[in-house]
Write a structure and sequence with these properties.
By secondary structure, the chain is of the alpha+beta class. The chain has 6 helices and 4 strands, in the order ββαβααβααα.
Length: about 160
């Protein structure tokens, strides 16, 4: 117990706040479509992403490559995708390296969030939104090389 003549106020965090981003990346055009929310990602968020993708590509055949999150494999999402003529392709478990969007998330963390301290949630959220909104203009060259599959060359070795 501490005794003093005046109250001392110590600044502390205001609690945990969440900012979730669900995204899709077009493997050909490198276009990124996101759904951003302060709530948890759930089946409704995935359906909203499917709607956004379909609005951007109304007449094209679409295949959405996804991981095995429970909210992505549920009946609501699979029925919604089928109703909007979107094929769902699920990656094998524990294989994030096969999903191109994971490279984008890694780049976001490196460029926008690494070694940064944010005074409040608004600044944190603004930094993420700024990065995602400037992908085409500021990070286009980096994004292009980041999303290009690179295979190691073995020189003149015969197999």
């Amino acid at each position: 117990m501490i005794w003093c003549f005046g109250r001392i106020f110590v600044k502390s965090g205001c609690g945990r706040q969440r900012y979730s981003v669900l995204g899709a990346l077009d493997s050909h055009s490198k276009e990124v479509i996101t759904v951003r929310t302060t709530e948890n990602i759930n089946a409704e968020s995935v359906c909203e992403l499917i709607d956004s993708i379909r609005r951007g590509h109304p007449d094209q055949a679409l295949t959405l490559v996804m991981d095995n999150a429970r909210y992505q494999r549920c009946k609501r999402v699979t029925e919604h995708a089928a109703a909007h003529d979107v094929e769902l392709l699920f990656l094998p478990a524990y294989s994030p390296n096969l999903n191109l969007i994971e490279r984008l998330w890694k780049h976001l963390k490196k460029k926008a969030l690494k070694n940064k301290h944010f005074k409040d949630f608004v600044g944190f959220r603004a930094k993420i939104d700024g990065y995602l909104d400037e992908l085409d203009s500021t990070y286009q060259k980096e994004l292009q090389s980041l999303l290009t599959l690179k295979f190691q060359s073995f020189g003149n070795h015969k197999m």
